[in-house]
Amino acid sequence: MRECPRLITCPFFNEKMPDKPATAELYKQRYCRDEYEKCARYMVFIKLGKEKVPADLFPNDIKRAQDILKST
């Protein structure tokens, strides 16, 4: 199984979801393991760098990630 190289340091899980472990685990299963390239946060990170990833960007918010990528 491939895991996102940013999983351990991802601020989304470390700062936004510490009080919601069950929800965080669902996101991790879907967006952080195996097909992490589909994560909205990863998409922005890989193209624009970590400083351009909004703190409130959810892993499943692909439309917003695409909008961010188009606006640059």
Topology of this structure?
Blueprint: H1 11-16, H2 21-32, H3 40-48, H4 62-70
In a few lines, what is going on in this structure?
With 72 residues, this protein is mainly α.
User: How many H/I helices?
Assistant: 4
Any idea what the radius of gyration is? 11 Å
Low-confidence stretches: none
* Percent in strands: under 5%
Taking the alpha carbons of the first and last residues, their distance comes to 33 Å
> What number of structural domains do the residues give?
1
Find the count of extended strands (DSSP E, 2+ residues).
Answer: 0
Main sheet, how many strands, which sense, barrel? none
Describe what this molecule looks like in 3D.
Helix 3 packs parallel to helix 4. The protein contains 4 helices and no strands. The radius of gyration is 11 Å and the shape is globular. The protein is 50% helix and 0% strand. The protein has one domain. The protein is mainly alpha-helical. The mean pLDDT is 89.
Which structural traits does this protein have?
single chain; 72 residues; mainly alpha; 50% helix; 0% strand
